[in-house]
Amino acid sequence: MDWQERAIRIMEDDRRRFVRDLQDGLLQILSNTSMRLDFLMRSMDVETAQAHEEILRVYRRLDQAIVDVRHLIDDLQPVPVAEVGLGTALVELAHRLEQEWGVPITVVDDSAGASMSRVTADLMLYRAVQEAVTNAVKHAQTERIIVRLYRKGPHLRIDVVDDGRGFDPQYPHPGQYGLGIMSDRIAAVGGGCLIESELGRGTQVHFSVPMPARSHAQ
After folding, report:
1. Domains of the chain: which residue ranges?
2. Has residue 5 got a pLDDT over 80?
3. How far is CA 22 from CA 31, 37, 59, 71, in A?
């Protein structure tokens, strides 16, 4: 196992610990506070209408915080790429995000079961696609997202395409599309990342990673 693989495995272990901390700490506190607010509203005198409205606003914001934390926990969960394969793992990711955000996400796997042979490489591809799709549902105001896996020469390619509002690549929204994060993940396995977008015309994110010789020869 080389140093990059060790570093990636350490990061995944850190994700597991962070998930446990969120579940046992922050999520429990938020949920308990929400229940107490609910009890308080039910027991208040009807004459204290203004206080009731203020508590209701806090209650709603707290509920949204709970939803956000649960989404974060889902995003950080370990991914069984080694067990199910990259294509199947991305289908499962699309299903979960579609349920959470209500945006139709289609995965088209034309890769004929292509694998990078190293679990860490498949994992980095998965995380990069996860970042691209999550950014699209959060920022793009899109009505649909298509993820396509395919081979092109000695490379495995993955395209993430949305029909949202797009953006000017010269002036992206701060943090939008996480170009740095996605590029770093793909570069770690010897690949490249390209983002194409135009205002009002959606966004396309392209990932390309060289496959092991025995994989692209099939």
Report:
1. 1-75, 82-210
2. no
3. 12, 21, 20, 11
The SS3 assignment for 184 reads helix
Q: Are 210 and 187 in contact (CB under 8 A)?
A: no
By three-state DSSP, how is residue 164 classified?
coil
* pLDDT digit string, tens, across residues 74-113: 777 667 787 888 999 999 999 999 998 999 999 999 988 7
Residue 127: both structure tokens together: 């995380």
Helix/strand/coil for 174 = coil
Name the residue among 143, 154, 147 with its Cα closest to residue 202. Answer: 143
Q: What b-and-e string marks burial along 59-91, b requiring 16 or more CB atoms within 10 Å of the CB? A: beebeeebeebbbebebbeebebeeebbbebbb
How far are the Cα atoms of 4, 166, 203, 209, 216 from residue 159, in angstroms, in the given order? 25, 16, 10, 12, 18
pLDDT band at 117 (very low <50, low <70, confident <90, very high): low
Q: Give this prediction's pTM.
A: 0.70
Q: Which CATH superfamily includes the segment(s) 82-210?
A: Histidine kinase-like ATPase, C-terminal domain (3.30.565.10)
Q: Which residues pair with 152 in a beta bridge?
A: 155
* 8: three-class secondary structure by DSSP: helix
Classify 175 in phi/psi space as left (phi over 0), alpha (psi -120 to 50) or beta: left
- Token digits for 122? 């498949």
CA 128 to each of CA 23, 88, 99, 208: distance values in angstroms, whole numbers, following the listed order: 24, 15, 20, 11
